[in-house]
Design brief:
The protein has 284 residues and is an alpha/beta fold. It contains nine helices and 13 strands. The protein has a single domain (5-21, 31-279), classed as Ribokinase (UDP-N-acetylmuramoyl-L-alanine:D-glutamate ligase, 3-Layer(aba) Sandwich).
C-alpha cells in the first residue's frame, strides 16, 4: 500500500459542543462532550489510513495516561506509531476545543516545547511521501531533507509562523491564510519562486488558490464540525501524490475529502477513497 509519513503535533482533545461561544466570566453547559485524538499529524495520519494507505506517524507524547490513550487510538485507527517517541516526565499535549452550532471551533492548547523538539532516533522505514506541520521543525527538516535526496514528494502544512529554513527542502508548500500572511504581503507566486516549490493557500469553504492564480472551489456541503478539516485536507493531499495524481487533481481530491469530513459528526467522519471518488465523479 502507498505509505505516507505524517510528522508533527499529537494531542488529546476535550471537545465541547456549544450553542454559542460563551461570554467572558459566564458558565455554560455543553450539549455533548468527548475525548478524542487531535493534532495535525495524528489527524492527517488517520486520513491516510482511512483512504487506504499506510500511515506512519512521527512525533512525541508524554509518559502519562493521555499518551497511553492516544497510542491505543493510533492502533485502532491502523496507524503505525513506531516513530512516535514517549518522553519521560512530560505531559502529552492536550486541548480544550469549543465547537459552536455553526460548525466553527475555538481551541485552547497546552504543550511542552520539549514535545516539539524531537528528532528521529532510527532509520526511516519505506515510504512514498512525507507530510509535516510547522510544530516539530527539527523532525520536519530531517524528513524533508531525506525526501528531497530520494526525489519523493514532501508537503509542508504551512501554519504561521512558517519556518523559512524548511522551504528549500519542500516540494509542496500548502499554506493556511495565516501562513500566507506571515510572508508580509509577498504574493503566492513570489513565494513559490523564492522557495522553488509548488505552492497553494487553503481558504476553507472559499477553496484553494494555486501559485499560478488558478482556484479550486470545494463541493458545497452543510458544515457540522470544522475541527480538523485542514488536517484532513493535508493528509489527503499528501496521499494523492502516492496515487500519481498531479497537483490540480490532488487539490480536487483533498477538497472533496475535507468537504465530506466537515459534513459529518462522530467516529465515521473520515472519508474512504471510494467516497471521495464518488464525490469527484459528480463534479466531472
Amino acid at each position: 500500500m502507498p505509505t505516507v509519513i505524517c510528522a508533527g503535533l499529537i494531542t488529546l482533545d476535550a471537545v465541547y459542543d456549544l450553542d454559542a461561544f460563551p461570554e467572558e466570566g459566564s458558565k455554560v453547559r455543553a450539549s455533548t462532550a468527548r475525548l478524542q485524538p487531535g493534532g495535525g499529524a495524528l489527524l492527517a495520519a488517520t486520513t491516510v489510513s482511512k483512504l487506504g494507505g499506510t500511515a506512519r506517524l512521527a512525533g512525541a507524547v508524554g509518559d502519562d495516561l493521555f499518551g497511553q490513550f492516544l497510542r491505543g487510538q493510533m492502533t485502532l485507527r491502523g496507524i503505525d506509531h513506531t516513530l512516535v517517541q514517549t518522553l519521560k516526565g512530560e505531559t502529552t499535549a492536550h486541548s480544550a476545543v469549543f465547537v459552536t452550532s455553526n460548525g466553527e471551533r475555538t481551541i485552547v492548547n497546552h504543550r511542552s516545547d520539549r514535545l516539539l523538539d524531537v528528532d528521529l532516533t532510527e532509520d526511516l522505514p519505506d515510504y512514498d511521501a512525507v507530510l509535516a506541520d510547522t510544530r516539530c521543525r527539527t523532525l520536519a527538516r530531517r524528513l524533508f531533507q531525506q525526501a528531497q535526496e530520494e526525489s519523493k514528494p514532501s508537503v509542508l502544512d504551512g501554519e504561521a509562523p512558517v519556518p523559512r529554513d524548511l522551504l528549500p527542502f519542500v516540494s509542496h508548500l500548502a499554506l493556511s491564510e495565516q501562513g500566507l500572511s506571515d510572508f508580509g504581503g509577498t504574493s503566492l507566486a513570489e513565494i513559490a519562486a523564492q522557495s522553488q516549490s509548488w505552492a497553494c493557500v487553503t481558504r476553507g469553504a472559499a477553496g484553494v488558490e494555486l501559485h499560478d492564480g488558478s482556484r479550486f472551489a470545494p463541493p458545497r456541503v452543510t458544515p457540522l464540525d470544522t475541527l480538523g478539516a485542514g488536517d484532513v485536507w493535508h493528509g489527503a493531499f499528501a496521499f494523492a501524490f502516492t496515487k500519481q495524481l498531479n497537483e490540480p487533481e490532488a487539490v480536487e481530491f483533498s477538497n472533496a475529502a475535507a468537504a465530506l469530513f466537515v459534513s459529518r459528526t462522530g467516529d465515521g467522519r473520515f472519508p474512504t477513497a471510494r467516497e471521495v471518488e464518488d464525490v469527484l465523479q459528480t463534479r466531472r
